[in-house]
C-alpha cells in the first residue's frame, strides 16, 4: 500500500492545477487502491477449512468494491461531475489554492518523519512549527523558531514525565 | 440492582474529588477546543489517548465526556460572536445567533444557547440513563449475524447520509475498510496487506489515521486557502440578558431540539449537522414572529439544544452495542479498546463502575459547563486572540507528539504525511471523512461477525438473514441505499 499511496502524493500535487478541469486521476487512484487490495487478497486463501470464509475473501471483496467505485467515479467525472471544495473554519472552499503555502505546510508535515530520530522532538517541533507558521503567512521566523523550540521542549519534558516514549532530547548528540 | 441505585453508585464514582477534577479539566478543555478553530472533539480525544494510558479508565472517560459535551457548548460561542462556527454542529446557530449579536442581543443569544444546551444535555442524559440498560439487555440476545447486519446498516447509512454523493461516501467507507484490513488477521493469524513492512503487522491505528486526517489534512487545506481573520468579535459588555419574553420563546425550542437531537444522534451517519439543521428548519416553520433571518432567538435555542442532545445520543449505540455513529464515537471506541474493554452489553455487567460513573459524570459535566460558559464567556473568547499561524503550528506539533508518542515508529509518521495528503484531497474534492474512520474501526468487527456467523452456518450465506432482526436490519440497509434514488427519480418525474 505505501508505494501506491506515494503515487497518490504526486497526483495530489498535480491536482491543484487541474481541480477545475476533470480530475481523472481521482478515479484512477481509487481503482489503483482497489487493485492493490485485490493483489493482496489474491495471495491469501479465500476459503477456510471450517466451511466459513478465509482471510482473503474480505480483502478481495473490499478491493473489488474499490475498483467498481473507482469506475463509477470515473464515469461521473466523464459526465462532468462537479467537485466543490469544503468550507473550513479559516478557509473558504471557493478560494483559489496557494501552491507555495501548500508546499510549505507539506514540508512541515514531512519534517517529523525525517528528523525525529536524529534531531529529537524539541528541534523537530521547532522546524515544523516555524514552517506551518510561515505557510500561514507569519513573517517573524526567528520568533516562530523560538516558540516552536520552547513548545517542543516543554511538551517533551511534560509528556515524557507522563509516560510517553518520546525518545531522547537530542539523539544525534546522545543527550 | 435497578437503574436508580446503579446511577446513585455512579454518582459515588463521579463525585470523587479526583474524578470531579478530571470532569472539570475535560469540560474546560472541551469548551476551549470548541471555541478554537482547527481542532474538534474527535482530534482532541485522539491526542489525549496516549497520555491517559496511565490513568484509570473511569477517570479518562469522565474527562473525554467533558470534552465531548464541552465542545458543543464552546462551538456556539464563536458562532454567535464572530459568525465562524467552531464545530460543524454550530453552523445553524451562526445564522440567527450572529444576527442577534449584531443587533446588540449577543448576551441573550449566548444565554439561550448555554441554558438550552444544559436543558437538552440533562434531559438527554436522563433518557440515556434509562434507555441504555434496556438496549444493552436486548443486545444480549444478538447473534453474530445480527451484529453483522447492524454493522452493514451503519456502513450504508454513514456512506449515504454523510457524503455529497453516494459514490464518494462509499469510496471513503471502503478506503477505511481497506485500512482496517492491514495487519495480522485476528482469526487466521496471517498478515494481510502488509507487503512485507514489519511495522504494519500490528495494523494501522485509528488514532494515526484520525490525527492525520483531521490535523494534517486540515492544516494543509487551510494553509493553502487561508483567508486571514477579518471578522471581529462582537462585544457583549453591558447587554441585557434573557428577558421574560426570551424565556417564553426559548423553552419550547429547547424541548423540540432535544426531541430531534437525541434519536438522531443515536442513528449512524447523522452526526450533529443534520439534527441541528432539522431543528432550525422546524423552528423557522413554526415561528410566528417574522424575525427569522434577522436574529430570532428560536433559531439559536432549538439547534443548540439539538446538538447537545445528539452528543448524548451517540453514547447509546456506542455503550450498548459498541457501534460508533460519528468520528468522535469512533475515537471513543478506540479508547475503550486501548484499555482492553469492548463496549457492548457485557460492559454494563463487567464494568458497572465505569459505565455508571461515566453516565453520572454527564450530569455533573452539564452543570459545570453551564457555570463555565455563562458567566465566564468573556474569558473564553480571549482564546481567539491566539494568532492563526501559531495556532495551526501548535496543532501540528501536538499531532506529531500524539503519533510518535504512542508507537515511536517512523513508519507511523510517514503514514501521517500520506494520510494527511489524502485528507487534503478529500477536502478539495468533497469526500466525507467520518466514513473512513467508521470503516476503519468497525470493519474488523464486521468481518469477525461475518466469519463467525458463516462458520456457525456451515458456510451457508442464508444464515446471515436467519434471524428476524438480521433480516430486518439488512432490509433497512437496502432501503437506506435505494430510497434516496427513488425520491430523486420521483421528484424528477413530478
UniProtKB/TrEMBL annotation, chain A:
The keyword Membrane applies. Keywords: Membrane, Transmembrane, Transmembrane helix. The chain crosses the membrane at residues 24-44, 56-79, 141-159. The keyword Transmembrane applies. InterPro entries: DUF1468. Residues 25-162 form the DUF1468 domain. This is Tricarboxylic transport membrane protein.
Automatic annotation (TrEMBL), chain B:
The chain crosses the membrane at residues 47-71, 108-135, 147-164, 171-188, 200-222, 314-336, 356-380, 392-425, 431-450, 462-487. Coiled coil: none annotated. Keywords: Membrane, Transmembrane, Transmembrane helix. Residues 20-437 form the DUF112 domain. InterPro entries: DUF112_TM. This is Tricarboxylic transport membrane protein.
Amino acid at each position: 500500500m505505501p508505494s501506491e499511496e506515494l503515487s497518490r502524493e504526486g497526483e495530489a500535487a498535480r491536482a491543484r492545477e487541474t481541480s477545475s478541469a476533470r480530475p481523472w486521476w481521482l478515479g484512477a487512484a481509487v481503482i489503483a487502491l482497489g487493485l492493490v487490495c485485490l493483489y493482496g487478497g489474491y495471495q491469501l486463501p479465500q476459503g477456510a477449512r471450517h466451511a466459513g470464509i478465509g482471510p482473503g475473501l474480505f480483502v478481495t471483496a473490499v478491493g473489488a468494491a474499490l475498483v467498481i467505485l473507482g469506475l463509477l467515479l470515473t464515469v461521473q467525472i466523464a459526465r462532468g461531475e462537479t467537485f466543490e471544495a469544503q468550507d473550513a473554519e479559516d478557509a473558504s472552499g471557493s478560494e483559489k489554492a496557494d501552491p507555495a503555502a501548500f508546499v510549505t505546510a507539506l514540508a512541515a508535515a514531512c519534517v517529523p518523519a525525517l528528523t525525529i530520530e536524529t534531531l529529537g522532538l524539541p528541534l523537530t517541533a521547532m522546524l515544523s512549527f516555524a514552517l506551518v507558521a510561515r505557510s500561514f503567512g507569519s513573517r517573524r521566523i526567528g520568533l516562530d523558531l523560538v516558540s516552536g523550540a520552547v513548545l517542543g521542549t516543554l511538551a517533551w519534558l511534560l509528556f515524557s514525565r507522563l509516560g510517553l516514549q518520546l525518545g531522547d532530547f537530542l539523539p544525534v548528540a546522545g543527550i | 440492582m435497578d437503574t436508580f441505585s446503579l446511577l446513585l453508585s455512579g454518582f459515588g464514582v463521579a463525585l470523587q474529588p479526583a474524578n470531579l477534577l478530571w470532569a472539570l479539566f475535560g469540560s474546560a478543555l472541551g469548551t476551549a477546543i470548541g471555541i478554537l478553530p482547527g481542532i474538534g472533539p474527535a482530534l482532541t480525544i485522539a491526542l489525549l489517548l496516549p497520555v491517559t494510558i496511565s490513568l484509570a479508565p473511569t477517570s479518562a472517560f469522565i474527562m473525554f465526556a467533558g470534552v465531548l459535551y464541552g465542545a458543543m457548548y464552546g462551538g456556539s460561542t464563536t458562532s454567535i460572536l464572530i459568525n465562524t462556527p467552531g464545530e460543524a454542529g454550530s453552523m445553524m446557530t451562526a445564522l440567527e445567533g450572529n444576527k442577534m449579536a449584531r443587533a446588540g442581543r449577543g448576551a441573550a443569544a449566548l444565554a439561550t444557547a448555554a441554558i438550552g444546551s444544559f436543558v437538552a444535555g440533562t434531559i438527554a442524559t436522563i433518557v440515556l440513563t434509562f434507555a441504555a440498560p434496556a438496549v444493552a439487555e436486548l443486545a444480549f440476545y444478538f447473534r453474530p449475524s445480527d451484529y453483522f447486519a447492524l454493522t452493514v446498516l451503519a456502513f450504508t447509512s454513514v456512506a449515504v447520509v454523510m457524503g455529497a454523493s453516494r459514490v464518494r461516501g462509499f469510496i471513503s467507507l471502503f478506503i477505511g475498510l481497506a485500512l482496517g484490513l492491514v495487519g495480522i488477521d485476528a482469526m487466521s493469524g496471517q498478515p494481510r496487506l502488509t507487503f512485507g513492512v514489519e511495522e504494519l503487522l500490528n495494523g494501522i491505528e485509528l488514532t494515526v489515521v484520525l490525527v492525520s486526517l483531521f490535523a494534517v489534512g486540515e492544516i494543509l487545506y487551510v494553509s493553502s486557502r487561508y483567508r486571514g481573520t477579518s471578522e471581529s468579535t462582537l462585544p457583549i459588555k453591558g447587554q441585557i440578558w434573557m428577558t421574560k419574553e426570551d424565556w417564553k420563546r426559548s423553552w419550547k425550542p429547547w424541548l423540540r431540539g432535544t426531541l430531534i437531537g437525541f434519536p438522531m444522534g443515536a442513528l449512524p451517519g447523522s452526526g450533529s449537522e443534520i439534527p441541528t439543521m432539522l431543528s432550525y428548519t422546524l423552528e423557522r416553520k413554526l415561528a410566528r414572529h417574522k424575525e427569522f433571518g434577522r436574529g430570532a432567538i428560536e433559531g439559536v435555542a432549538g439547534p443548540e439544544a439539538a446538538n447537545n442532545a445528539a452528543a448524548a445520543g451517540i453514547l447509546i449505540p456506542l455503550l450498548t452495542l459498541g457501534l460508533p455513529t460519528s468520528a468522535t464515537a469512533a475515537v471513543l471506541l478506540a479508547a475503550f479498546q486501548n484499555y482492553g474493554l469492548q463496549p457492548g452489553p457485557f460492559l454494563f455487567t463487567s464494568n458497572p463502575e465505569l459505565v455508571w460513573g461515566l453516565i453520572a459524570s454527564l450530569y455533573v459535566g452539564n452543570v459545570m459547563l453551564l457555570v463555565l460558559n455563562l458567566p465566564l464567556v468573556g474569558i473564553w473568547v480571549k482564546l481567539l486572540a491566539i494568532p492563526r499561524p501559531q495556532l495551526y503550528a501548535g496543532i501540528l506539533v501536538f499531532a506529531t507528539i500524539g503519533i510518535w508518542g504512542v508507537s515511536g515508529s517512523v513508519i507511523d509518521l510517514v503514514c501521517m504525511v500520506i494520510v494527511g495528503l489524502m485528507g487534503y484531497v478529500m477536502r478539495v474534492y468533497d469526500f466525507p471523512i467520518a466514513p473512513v474512520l467508521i470503516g476503519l474501526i468497525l470493519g474488523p468487527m464486521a468481518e469477525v461477525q461475518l466469519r463467525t456467523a458463516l462458520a456457525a452456518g456451515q458456510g451457508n450465506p442464508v444464515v446471515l438473514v436467519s434471524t428476524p432482526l438480521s433480516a430486518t436490519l439488512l432490509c433497512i440497509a437496502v432501503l437506506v441505499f435505494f430510497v434516496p434514488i427513488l425520491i430523486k427519480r420521483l421528484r424528477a418525474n413530478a
